[in-house]
Amino acid sequence: MHSVTVPSRSADHKDSRESRHGNHHLDAVSLAIIEQLQEDGRRPYAAIGKAVGLSEAAVRQRVQKLLDQGVMQIVAVTDPLTVGFRRQAMVGINVEGDTETVADALTGMSEVEYVVMTAGSFDILAEIVCEDDDQLLDVINKRIRVLPGVRSTESFVYLKLKKQTYMWGTR
User: Considering the chain, what is the average pLDDT of its residues?
Assistant: First the structure.
């Protein structure tokens, strides 16, 4: 298990650094703080301050503001197998009608960890983490396929997780 800082995937990567969900301008110091935390999500604020030229208190305030604004999260990333989740799958979903409605319903399911609206073969991709095959089957058959607007699903069961990282830095 390791801890990482995950910049919000909703962050718009234009030069203005404004979030799509708010107009949060990220200056060079905030970006440097995010990068420090991506390297080590448990790095002490004093060490971050030294690296970016701020006091520990100033770093603490900036980190809290970034968290409050939804710009980033600080989370523990685990290997799902080691904490009791023996089955993972990516589910491609085709939708008739409004994909937003289906995507919103998926985000409310505790087993669904990741929801992406896409262009291509599927309208939505959803990553599902379950304890076993029975739970995965239940989620797909009794909760996803019955959602209004879901036309079809295709499941891609994970055999082995080779890479899981959130170290893409900032731009």
Answer: 86
